[in-house]
C-alpha cells in the first residue's frame, strides 16, 4: 500500500511502494487492452487537474486515467501563472476542495507547490511536475517501461542525456532508478549539470560517447530551445553534434538497448528521427504505459481496497 | 524619575566592567554605577539578581518598512520588536517606498521615530537615488538630517564606478558605505544556496561566488579609495576568508553576519518552509563553521539581525515567489548567546559584538553604560529557557524559521532612553 495520501515525489516513496505501484499498473494495462476500457473503481469521486503550466500529454493522460476509473474530472488550466495578481494558490486549492474534489493533480512552475498544497488543504495531491523538483509519474511510467523490456533493474545501466539542470524528469528518474538498483549515468554539458548531483551516487559524463557505452537504456531529454539565449549553449547545432542521439552514437550502447524520451521531442536537436522512429525506440509505449501507471496511482491514492 | 537596578551582573566592554554592580538611572541618562548596596535611593528599584545587565543591543541592519510597507511593519511595531529583543537602537535600511534617498524621507523617519518609536532609530540612507545604482544621493543633506551610514541594501551597487564614487565621496562625512554584496547576474532568479540541496529540492541556487565576487570587488575599491566599507550579512565561508585576508593587509573594512547564518543550513530546505528564504541564502555546515570562526577571530566585527518582517501573504505561498527575509529582532540575542554556551566566545565578547562595535562602526554614542550615556539597557536572564512562538512576536512579521525552537536567554527588562519595559 501507499503510505501517504499524496504522491509528492519519488524521494518520498519507499522501494516497496514503487514496486506496488508498478504491479498495480500492470493490472490496469490489461484493462486498457479490453474492448471496454473502463472500471468503476473511482465512481462518485472527483479528480481535479490543476495545471499552471502548459501541458498536453500529461494533462490528457491524467484526465483519461481518471475517466477510465469512472471519476468525474475538473480541468483547470491557469496559463502563465504570474501569480502576482489574482487568486492565491491556497485559495484556488480550497475552492477546489469546496467543490468536492478529493484528488488534485498539480503542475506548477515552482518547486514545492504540491508540498504546499498538501500542507494547506485536505486534498490528496498528485505531483504532475513542480519546477525543477520532480515529475514522479513520469519516472514511474519510465520504470514500468524499462521493467517490461528488461525484466529487472539491478545491474542495468541507464544513461540519461540532456538538460539535467532544468529537468524534473531526470531527477525523478534518478531517484527511482537508484532505489530500484540500476546504475544511472547522466550526460550533459557542464553548463547544464546541477550542482553536486554526483552525491546522489550516479556517474556523471560530459561526453555522450563515453556515457552511452554499454548502456541498456538510453533516455534523451527535451532541450528547451531558449537555453541557447541564456548562455548555456552556443547553438542548437553544436548541441546536436555533441549530445544528439543518432544511430551512430546508439551503436556504442548495448545492441538490445532501448531508447526513451518523455516527450515532446525536438527532432534534430536532442534526437535524430531515425532513432526516435527506429526499432529500439519505446517512446510511444511510454505514453500508453503512462495511462496505466496514472490509473494505478489515482486508484491507490483514492484508498479503494481491491 | 530615578530608577535603580540592583544586584545585576553588569557587563560593559566599553569600560572593562564585568562584576556585580548597582546602576542608577535618572531620566534619560545613566547617572552612575555603584558597588552593590551603595547607590543612593531611587523612585523605583529593579531587582536584577540572576541577570546580566548590559548596554542595550544595537542593530546596524534593520528593516522597519515605513514609509510604504506599513502592512509588513511600522516604526512603532518594529521598535517594539526591538526592545522586546533587548535592542535599544536600530539602524533602518532605506528600501522603503519611497526609498530613503532624500532628506525629506530621512526627516520623516526621524520624526516618526521620535513620536512613535519605542527606542532610538538611526536611518541608513540610500547610496544612489531610488537605489537604482546610477546617481549618488545627497550625502551631506541626509547626514545632517540623521543618516549614520549609506547603503543600497537589497539592491547591490552593480556598477563598480558608482561604488568607487560612493566610497570616495562618503569620506567627506566619515560615514560607512554598507555593501549588500551580490552579483545580480550570478544570482539571477535564485532563491536558495546553490549546492546539493538546491539540486535535490529543485529550487534555483545562488552560488556563494555571487557574494564573494562582490565582497572582493568592494574590498579592492575600499583599498583604492580609502573609504569606509562595511560588508552586510556575510553568509559564506569564502567571504570570511577574503575579509580576513584584507584585514591582515590593513584595509579598513568591517563586516557583519546574522544569527541565521550561524544557526541554520540549507539542509532544512526539504520542507520548502518559506521562512528559510532569505537573501543571501543560508548555506552549508562548512559556511556555518567558517562564520563562527570569523566571529571568534574578529574577522567579522559584529552581529546584526537583518530583521526583514513580511506579511503572511508574502510568505505563505510558492517558494519561488515568496519574499526574502527573516523577522529577526526577537530571537537574535538568544541565538547569539548559543555561541557563548557552546564555548566559542565569552559573554563579554558577545556584548562587544552586539553593542559596542556596532556603535563604533555607525559612529554613534550608544552601546555603553558610562555615566552620562543614554539610559539604554537590557536585563537578561542568560539561563532561562523558553520556546519561540512567532505568533507572539511584537513585530508584525511572524516570518521566523526559529518558531518552536527551544532557546536559552530571556530578556526580562529593557530600558530605552529611560523608559522601562517589563517582559512577561
Q: What is the percent of helical residues of chain A?
A: 25-40%
Give the count of helical stretches of chain B: 13
Distance, first to last CA of chain B:
23 Å
Name the chain pair with the biggest interface and residue counts per chain.
A-B, 28 and 21 residues
Characterization of this structure:
- The complex is a heterodimer of chains A (about 300) and B (about 425).
- Helix content of chain A is about 40%, strand content about 15%.
- Chain A has helices at about 15-35, 55-70, 90-100, 115-120, 135-150, 170-180, 210, 235-245, 245-250, 275, 285-300; strands spanning about 45-50, 70-75, 105-110, 125-130, 155-160, 185, 205, 215-220, 260.
- Chain A has a 5-stranded parallel sheet.
- In chain A, helix 5 (about 135-150) crosses helix 6 (about 170-180) and helix 5 (about 135-150) crosses helix 11 (about 285-300).
- The mean pLDDT of chain A is about 95.
- Chain B is an alpha/beta fold and about 425 residues long.
- Chain B has 2 domains: about 1-50 and about 375-420, Urease, subunit C, domain 1 (Roll); about 55-360, TIM Barrel (Alpha-Beta Barrel).
- Chain B is about 30% helix and about 25% strand.
- The longest helix of chain B has 18 residues, at about 210-225.
- The interface of A and B includes residues 90, 109, 116, 131 and 134 of A.
Amino acid at each position: 500500500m501507499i503510505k501517504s495520501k499524496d504522491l509528492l515525489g519519488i524521494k518520498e516513496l519507499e522501494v516497496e511502494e514503487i514496486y506496488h505501484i508498478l504491479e498495480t499498473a500492470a493490472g490496469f494495462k490489461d484493462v486498457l487492452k479490453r474492448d471496454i476500457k473502463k472500471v468503476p473503481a473511482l465512481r462518485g469521486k472527483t479528480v481535479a487537474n490543476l495545471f499552471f503550466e502548459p501541458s498536453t500529454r500529461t494533462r490528457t493522460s491524467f484526465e483519461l486515467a481518471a475517466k477510465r476509473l469512472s471519476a468525474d474530472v475538473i480541468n483547470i488550466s491557469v496559463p502563465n501563472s504570474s501569480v502576482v495578481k489574482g487568486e492565491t494558490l491556497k485559495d484556488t486549492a480550497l475552492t477546489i476542495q469546496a467543490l468536492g474534489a478529493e484528488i488534485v493533480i498539480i503542475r506548477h512552475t515552482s518547486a514545492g507547490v504540491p508540498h504546499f498544497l498538501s500542507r494547506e488543504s485536505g486534498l490528496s495531491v498528485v505531483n504532475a511536475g513542480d519546477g525543477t523538483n520532480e515529475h514522479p509519474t513520469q519516472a514511474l511510467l519510465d520504470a514500468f517501461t524499462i521493467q517490461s523490456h528488461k525484466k529487472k533493474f539491478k545491474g542495468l545501466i541507464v544513461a540519461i542525456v540532456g538538460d539535467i539542470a532544468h529537468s524534473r524528469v531526470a531527477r525523478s528518474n534518478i531517484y527511482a532508478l537508484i532505489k530500484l538498483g540500476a546504475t544511472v549515468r547522466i550526460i550533459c554539458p557542464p553548463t547544464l549539470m546541477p550542482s553536486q548531483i554526483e552525491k546522489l551516487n550516479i556517474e556523471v559524463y560530459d561526453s555522450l560517447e563515453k556515457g552511452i557505452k554499454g548502456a541498456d537504456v538510453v533516455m534523451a531529454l527535451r532541450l528547451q530551445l531558449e537555453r541557447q539565449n541564456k548562455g548555456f549553449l552556443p547553438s542548437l547545432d553544436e548541441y546536436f553534434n555533441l549530445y544528439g542521439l543518432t544511430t551512430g552514437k546508439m551503436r556504442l550502447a548495448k545492441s538490445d538497448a532501448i531508447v526513451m524520451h518523455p516527450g515532446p521531442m525536438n527532432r534534430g536537436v536532442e534526437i535524430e528521427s531515425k532513432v526516435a522512429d527506429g526499432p529500439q525506440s519505446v517512446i510511444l509505449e511510454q505514453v500508453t504505459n503512462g495511462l496505466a501507471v496514472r490509473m494505478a496511482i489515482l486508484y491507490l491514492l483514492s484508498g479503494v481496497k481491491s | 524619575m530615578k530608577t535603580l537596578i540592583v544586584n545585576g551582573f553588569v557587563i560593559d566592554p566599553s569600560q572593562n566592567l564585568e562584576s556585580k554592580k548597582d546602576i542608577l538611572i535618572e531620566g534619560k541618562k545613566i547617572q552612575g554605577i555603584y558597588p552593590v548596596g551603595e547607590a543612593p535611593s531611587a523612585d523605583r528599584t529593579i531587582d536584577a539578581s540572576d541577570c546580566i545587565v548590559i548596554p542595550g543591543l544595537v542593530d546596524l541592519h534593520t528593516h522597519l518598512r515605513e514609509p510604504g510597507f506599513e502592512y509588513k511593519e511600522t516604526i512603532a511595531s518594529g521598535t517594539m520588536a526591538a526592545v522586546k529583543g533587548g535592542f535599544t537602537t536600530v539602524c533602518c535600511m532605506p528600501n522603503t517606498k519611497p526609498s530613503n534617498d532624500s532628506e525629506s524621507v530621512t526627516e520623516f523617519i526621524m520624526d516618526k521615530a521620535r513620536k512613535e518609536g519605542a527606542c532610538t532609530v538611526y536611518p541608513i540612507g540610500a547610496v544612489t537615488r531610488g537605489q537604482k545604482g546610477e546617481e549618488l544621493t545627497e550625502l551631506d543633506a541626509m547626514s545632517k538630517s540623521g543618516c549614520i551610514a549609506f547603503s543600497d541594501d537589497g539592491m547591490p551597487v552593480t556598477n563598480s564606478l558608482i561604488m568607487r564614487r560612493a566610497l570616495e565621496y562618503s569620506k567627506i562625512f566619515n560615514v560607512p558605505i554598507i555593501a549588500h554584496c551580490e552579483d545580480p547576474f550570478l544570482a539571477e532568479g535564485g532563491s536558495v544556496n546553490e549546492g546539493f540541496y538546491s539540486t535535490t529540492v529543485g529550487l534555483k541556487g545562488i552560488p556563494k561566488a555571487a557574494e564573494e565576487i562582490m565582497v572582493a570587488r568592494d574590498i579592492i575599491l575600499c583599498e583604492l579609495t580609502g573609504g569606509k566599507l562595511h560588508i552586510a550579512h556575510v553568509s559564506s565561508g569564502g567571504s570570511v576568508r577574503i575579509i580576513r585576508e584584507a584585514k591582515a593587509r590593513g584595509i579598513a573594512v568591517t563586516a557583519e553576519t546574522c544569527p541565521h547564518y550561524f544557526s541554520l543550513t540549507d539542509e532544512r530546505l526539504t520542507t520548502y518552509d518559506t521562512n528559510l528564504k532569505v537573501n543571501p541564502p543560508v548555506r552549508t555546515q562548512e559556511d556555518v563553521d567558517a562564520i563562527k570562526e570569523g566571529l571568534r577571530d574578529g574577522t567579522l566585527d559584529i552581529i546584526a539581525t537583518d530583521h526583514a518582517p513580511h506579511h503572511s501573504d508574502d510568505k505563505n505561498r510558492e517558494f519561488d515567489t515568496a519574499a526574502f527575509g527573516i523577522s529577526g529582532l526577537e530571537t537574535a540575542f538568544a541565538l547569539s548567546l548559543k555561541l557563548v554556551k557552546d564555548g566559542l566566545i565569552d559573554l563579554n565578547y558577545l556584548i562587544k559584538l552586539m553593542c559596542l562595535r556596532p556603535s563604533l562602526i555607525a559612529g554613534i554614542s550608544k552601546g555603553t553604560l558610562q555615566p552620562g550615556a543614554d539610559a539604554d539597557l537590557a536585563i537578561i536572564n542568560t539561563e532561562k529557557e523558553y520556546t519561540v512562538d512567532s505568533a507572539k512576536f511584537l513585530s508584525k512579521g511572524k516570518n521566523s524559521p526559529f518558531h518552536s525552537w527551544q532557546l536559552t536567554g530571556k530578556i526580562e527588562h529593557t530600558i530605552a532612553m529611560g523608559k522601562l519595559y517589563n517582559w512577561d
